[in-house]
Amino acid sequence: MPNRLPMNYGRQPMYSRQRQSLAVLWLNIACAVLITTLLFSGVTLFALWLSLMPHRPEFSLAEFSIPNLNRQSGAVNLPVKFTVNERNPNLKIGIHFDKFHGSVYYNDELIASGPVVFPFFGLPKKDMPVQGELTASGPGPTDPAWPRFVAEVGAGSVELRLVLDSTMLYQVRLFDTREHHMKVDCDFMISGNGSLLQEYKNAPCKLNF
């Protein structure tokens, strides 16, 4: 009688299934590790990009005055003094500022204008006062805006606007370092004697590129 072959047909498929299951398990683990690594690297690179990306400077109106504003002859030839604080919010990036030109408006009428600050360098995480003194050219008794101006001075609140024009350049190598023209726009009110109203002290100014 011929010898019977061992009945092991069922073991080979089971062993193959175990090997396949183990391979799928390792493949899933490898995919999970790869996805986790990519996600962590992406978050790290994004955080690094945010830390290195230049942030715009911040400006706020600290002081403004036109002494003797309530005199009968108006504001003509009166000194216009102001201080605008510049803050560089960047951690490691400096900012080069060109000279500043200042303009003061009353109801969109230019009443004072001229250069105010020479070029300077804004250090990272530092404040720099931008101080200027101009000479007012109005309003005077012959101006169309004179009646309204006198009424606002008498009421103790005169609305003005200070505009500073300049160009700036970031001190950084990894990003765009071309010059940017910027305009600082401060809206505020002064009292009848020409001093800045308290609620506008250190008020933020708008910055437009």
Shape: elongated
Number of strands: 11
pLDDT below 50 for ≥5 consecutive residues: which ranges? none
Tell me the Rg in angstroms: 34 Å
End-to-end Cα distance? 101 Å
Largest sheet: 7 strands, antiparallel
State the helical fraction. 10-25%
The third-level CATH topology of the largest domain is Immunoglobulin-like
What does this structure look like?
- The longest helix has 42 residues, at 11-52.
- Strand 4 (100-106) and strand 5 (109-117) form a beta hairpin.
- The strands form two sheets. Strands 3, 4, 5, 6, 8, 9 and 11 form a seven-stranded antiparallel sheet that branches. Strands 7-2-1-10 form a four-stranded antiparallel sheet, with no helix packed on it.
- The protein is elongated and about 105 Å long.
- Helix content is 25%, strand content 38%.
- It has two domains: 1-52; 58-208, Immunoglobulin-like.
- It is built from two helices and eleven strands; from the N terminus they run H-E-E-E-E-E-E-E-H-E-E-E-E.
- The termini are far apart.
- The protein has 209 residues and is of the alpha+beta class.
- It has helices spanning 11-52, 146-155, and strands at 58-65, 79-87, 94-97, 100-106, 109-117, 120-122, 127-135, 158-171, 180-190, 203-204, 206-208.
Supply database-style keywords.
single chain, 209 residues, alpha+beta, Immunoglobulin-like, 2 domains, four-stranded antiparallel sheet, 2 helices, 11 strands, 25% helix
Set out the fold topology.
Layout: H1 11-52, E1 58-65, E2 79-87, E3 94-97, E4 100-106, E5 109-117, E6 120-122, E7 127-135, H2 146-155, E8 158-171, E9 180-190, E10 203-204, E11 206-208
Antiparallel strand pairs: 1-2, 1-10, 2-7, 3-6, 3-8, 4-5, 4-8, 8-9, 9-11
